[in-house]
Amino acid sequence: MSTSATYSRSSRESASLIGQRRDMPPAYTEVHSNSTDQILIAVMGATGAGKSSFINLVSGSDLEVGTGLRSCTRGVDISSPFTIGGRTATLIDTPGFDDTNLSDTEVLTIISLFLSTIYEQGGVLNGVLFFHRISDVRMGGISRRNFNMFRHLCGDEGLRNVVIVTNMWDEVSEEQGLARVQQLANEDMFFKPALQLGAIMLPHDRTIGSAQEIVRQACRNTPVVLRLQRELVIENKSLAETAAGMALDEELAAQTRKYTEELQELQAELDSVIESHDEQAANELAKAKLDMEANVKRINGERQKLGNSYAKEKGAMTNELELLRQDLQQERAATARTSANIARLRRRSEQQFRYDQEQMARLAQSATDIEIQQRQRARQRDGILNMVIPAVLRLFHYAQLHVLRR
Ligand SMILES: Nc1nc2c(ncn2[C@@H]2O[C@H](COP(=O)(O)OP(=O)(O)O)[C@@H](O)[C@H]2O)c(=O)[nH]1
Ligand SMILES: [Mg+2]
């Protein structure tokens, strides 16, 4: 039996809503928003947290779902739009900051490109879902890193539209799950600060009902501009200057420091084994040193990328969008021309039809007139004949009488 079935109603209710209700005034709302019946929700969290599965379940989409530890969301993915509470919702799937195909810099760049572009195009997020596996024994490195990056890109102001979704309840006992919820909600190093700033925590038990309830919760929000959107679009910062960019750069810098120290230690060891002529140890250390140098190079490359890839990609994306917009305009103009031509043709054929009908009516009338005339003429002729013949007959009669009399 699935453990989700044993996740009883009362305990689900007790865990169902943790965090403050959002009757607080918006900390930072922007003037423009999606049309009121359009809902846009971003879904974030570590790789394998169940984001794509959730999106597929609630929207009927067919996004790729992971089978092992490898991630499959390459960049941002968009669900099919679906109707909920009479409104049309679209969910945005994002890669986690532990992706097997993308570096963290690439993940942040992709999320930044999406968030800034959608905001520039007049779209705002009604909510952000952060997925956390309740089956994780503790909020380990990956979950914590993902949540840290998430906190930086949402900012305090974005948290009131955040739902922390706990899932994979079928992999823990009810007691374990509820104890973990309490721990996550009550400890400063976990979700407590976010919950105090307006985020809420809801469980997802893999049923469509719980998925819809989570989406409905996000539909009730007033759309909010996330910190990363404000920094990139309104304050025109570079990605490296944003809170999320700085946090990631700090992490990369710490990694560089660590690798550089290890490299120095390796070098010292290598010097001593070279002195002691231990060739095998020297070879092993030289190889370890090469690996470490490659690590330092990779991390430095990531830091450089963090400094310039967003601007480069953003430029390319803006050009692409401009071309698409032009294409769309041309298509719209062509459609408008075609519609005008069709309307003109329709008017003309209607005119022609009316004209033809009038002509036909006129012809029919003429035919009737001719018939009438013919009938009249026939009647006249008959009349004339009727008058002439008796007259002729009479004349003949008189003439006859006259002859006979002679
Ligand atoms: N046991 C269990 N597995 C789940 C649940 N949700 C998703 N999964 C599985 O977790 C794996 C990763 O899911 P996926 O949706 O690809 O996660 P993503 O990387 O966050 O998009 C897949 O094998 C899913 O079938 C759940 O609630 N319980
Ligand atoms: Mg996925």
TrEMBL record:
Residues 249-283 form a coiled coil. Residues 41-98 form the G domain. CDD domains: Ras_like_GTPase. Pfam families: MMR_HSR1. SUPFAM superfamilies: P-loop containing nucleoside triphosphate hydrolases (SSF52540). It comes from the Eukaryota. Keywords: Coiled coil. This is G domain-containing protein. It comes from Somion occarium.
